[in-house]
Design a protein that fits this description.
This protein is an alpha/beta fold. The chain has helices at 2-11, 19-24, 94-101, 136-139, 150-155, 172-189, 199-202, 214-224, and strands at 45-48, 60-63, 81-86, 119-121, 132-134, 156-161, 196-198.
């Protein structure tokens, strides 16, 4: 899995991110030994210039077309992916997922920090339908614990929609909210459509479910930009 992730990064034009594969060998489920240094927000643009030796995205500039709704409390990481999930449950919320994830441990036996996602979108059962809630991981710009891949956890924004989309479709409000969220995140961090992926792209799983229209959502999010 780690070697495949490194190959994917090279193919995607991020060849100097191959160092992630070696670091990820020591990585646990909730984070890892390497981090992506934060950048400083600006009014018109965010410059992702060098912040440390070997910075994988040195000099990359992200355009800021409009006010960013999801400005975090901490300095922003160099996000590369967005990974879409469903909860696989009929009901749920940030707090319920947080409680459940707090019971998990990584491969080294260390407890998770809490909810592994950066954003959760409610379906009306546990959270307001279409409500987008940022978690502590987004506010503090921490790695995720959502993909089963060290690389995708470290530089991937985890977005979870409440629902089991193997059995039914997301609500219209959820679709509208995830489209808006993807539009803002891809525009803010310069993430191309090919790097907005479902969880099933990273590991063998049905997530985010057969009834989640991932490609349609991506196309609409990009066209809205």
């Amino acid at each position: 899995m780690i070697r495949a992730a490194a190959v994917l990064l090279i193919i995607s034009g991020y060849s100097d991110l191959a160092w992630c594969a070696d670091a990820a060998k020591k990585d646990g489920a909730d984070g890892g030994p390497f981090t992506i240094s934060p950048v400083v927000s600006g009014t018109q643009a965010v410059s992702l210039g060098p912040s440390h030796s070997g910075s994988p995205l040195s000099g990359r500039v992200v355009s800021r077309k409009k006010e960013f709704t999801w400005s975090p409390a901490a300095g922003e990481r160099r996000w590369v992916y967005i990974v879409i999930h469903h909860s696989g449950t009929n009901a749920g919320s940030v707090s319920s997922i947080h409680r459940e994830h707090r019971q998990r441990k990584d491969s080294q036996g260390n407890p998770w920090l809490g909810i592994g996602y950066h954003f959760v979108i409610g379906n009306g059962d546990g959270m307001e339908d279409g409500l987008v809630e940022a978690t502590f991981r987004w506010e503090q710009q921490l790695h995720g614990a959502h993909s089963g891949s060290a690389v995708h956890n470290d530089v991937g924004i985890g977005v979870c929609l409440i629902g089991n989309f193997q059995e039914h479709q997301p609500t219209q409000k959820q679709l509208g909210s995830v489209t808006r969220l993807l539009n803002e995140l891809t525009g803010r961090y310069g993430i191309p459509p090919r790097l907005v992926i479902g969880h099933q792209t990273v590991r063998p799983t049905a997530c985010p479910g057969q009834f989640f229209p991932l490609q349609d959502v991506i196309r609409e999010a990009v066209s809205d930009g």
